[in-house]
Amino acid sequence: xxxxxxxxxxxxxxxxxxxxxxxxxxxxxxxxxxxxxxxxxxxxxxxxxxxxxxxxxxxxxxxxxxxxxxxxxxxxxxxxxxxxxxxxxxxxxxxxxxxxxxxxxxxxxxxxxxxxxxxxxxxxxxxxxxxxxxxxxxxxxxxxxxxxxxxxxxxxxxxxxxxxxxxxxxxxxxxxxxxxxxxxxxxxxxxxxxxxxxxxxxxxxxxxxxxxxxxxxxxxxxxxxxxxxxxxxxxxxxxxxxxxxxxxxxxxxxxxxxxxxxxxxxxxxxxxxxxxxxxxxxxxxxxxxxxxxxxxxxxxxxxxxxxxxxxxxxxxxxxxxxxxxxxxxxxxxxxxxxxxxxxxxxxxxxxxxxxxxxxxxxxxxxxxxxxxxxxxxxxxxxxxxxxxxxxxxxxxxxxxxxxxxxxxxxxxxxxxxxxxxxxxxxxxxxxxxxxxxxxxxxxxxxxxxxxxxxxxxxxxxxxxxxxxxxxxxxxxxxxxx
Length: 481
Prior knowledge:
The protein has 481 residues and is an alpha+beta fold. The chain has helices at residues 46-67, 69-82, 103-116, 130-144, 243-265, 319-334, 338-342, 350-386, 413-425, 431-437, 442-459, 474-480, and strands at 89-92, 146-153, 163-168, 179-180, 186-188, 191-193, 199-206, 209-217, 221-225, 268-272, 305-309, 401-404. Among the domains are: 46-241, no CATH class; 256-342, no CATH class.
């Protein structure tokens, strides 16, 4: 049995002994003293905390999105690295009764899902394509902490699969609606749960009337968020721990810019010998105090007055150091690298930027995995149930599938590709896994190579000395010669 690690500390009065004559043992983080007076202890119930914090934190996160450059940059990074330019790619893994891959059927399902995902088909308002929905969902969750996706059975006039999704503002889920139903279910922050804390229904506000709700069964809704603690029923913005610093730094930077502008204008004050408060008269403004300065304009000091200059020396020499320190703190709170958030590459070298980039990519792949589980898989399975050509066919074989998230160019292409080839040759990796790490489907690559070889053979073209070069075709080559 391992030794328990304890923390020991003696009081300032000397050797403090317990009544039994032993040293007092306790965790330092649990002590109460004047040094920890401002260290508040949160409530035991995460949902009670969320009840008070959801609305103000969400509204402030939205304000930051509108006006704060760092917040907008972070949300752009979430979209770019989680979804990318091509979205998550569906790979159906159905197999025939003999265990071999159902290549033709899998391709048919993938093509049909891609057709359903066109703008005007997959989303009930007709405004978004499936890629738009992906980006909107992940951005909403990052900013608001959660997103609602309602699953609708629709008429064939919208799409042939009679299925569409609706992205719902999470503010419509009334977090003030709580209580207990006659069947024993509880309503927590607008979410009805059973005895196992499994969501049963969601209570959406009906229009502008906060007292009226629409009860939507959980089977018709995807509530997408990342819980931080067990039994948490609502989500919190991913920017929460960085928001205060982001806001304060924005105001600090604004003040620094204003101070620098005032300093550039060389402002000052007019003082009179007798200390009078009368304004300085001019033809344009008789008896009024001057309150503005204009760049490049020098005035004449009136008789009886002296000029006292006001020359703010700001921003000071440590301005850049101070800004960088706070920007690093914000980047850490958002779990992104400093150079990715700020675009500042002045203090990085190849090794540091490589290490930071690889860690960023691991983080984004974790986010992708979370999104696949909570958005892509349930939407695909629900769409598969409605896919018209499968109504009379057993479609269970096509439930097996995977989603390939976007991947990124190699940090050091030559060395990384050589390492991948060496891993394949050593039997440590398969070509399929290497292709997946690159964000491509190995079957598509093989199909493309085969089509290329066919075209090259038709035209009598031989490229390089690789094994994939087209075979020698005498008739075509004879015609080419």
